[in-house]
Amino acid sequence: MAGTSTAVVHSAAERVQAGRQAVVAASGQAVAFAKTAWTVIAQRKLLAAGVGAGLSALGATSYLAGHRAGRRTHGPITRLTGGRI
Predict the structure, then answer these.
(1) 78 touches 85 (CB < 8 A)
(2) For residues 38 and 73, what is the distance between their CA atoms, to the nearest angstrom?
(3) Cα(22)–Cα(27) distance, integer angstroms
(4) pLDDT, tens digit, 9 for 90 and up, residues 8-41
(5) What is the pLDDT of residues 50-73, one digit of tens each?
(6) Cα–Cα distance list, 1 to 5, 6, 14 (Å)
(7) Measured between alpha carbons, how far is 79 from 85 in angstroms, rounded to an integer?
(8) Is the sign of the CA dihedral 19, 20, 21, 26 positive or negative?
(9) How many whole angstroms separate alpha carbon 28 and alpha carbon 36?
(10) What is the rounded distance in angstroms from the CA atom of residue 62 to the CA atom of residue 11?
């Protein structure tokens, strides 16, 4: 009987230890997520400036690409005379 109760106590202690380790691992992940979120929040102005600059560059590039595509090509004589011939 004493051996059985010792085994029960031992297995209960193992389950408690496993639960404790799971809680520690989960809290570590939560802390890592919180640090990442705080870093993003703290750097939001820099992030917004970078996104704005990227969108501006994309807009300028697409405008220039469309502008170049819309131009008619001129031959060498037309370019030489400035479009008069």
Answers:
(1) yes
(2) 54
(3) 9
(4) 777 777 888 888 888 777 777 888 888 888 887 8
(5) 889 999 999 888 888 877 666 667
(6) 6, 9, 20
(7) 9
(8) positive
(9) 12
(10) 67
pTM higher than 0.90: no
- Which spans in the chain are helix H? 2-42, 44-70, 76-81
Distance CA 73, CA 83 (A): 11
Cβ neighbors of 40 (< 8 A, separation 6 or more) are 47
How far out from the chain centre does Cα 5 lie? 53
Residues in the chain: 85
Q: CA–CA separation, 29 vs 35, rounded Å?
A: 10
Structure tokens at 62: 């697409």
Dist CA 83 CA 68 (whole Å) = 17
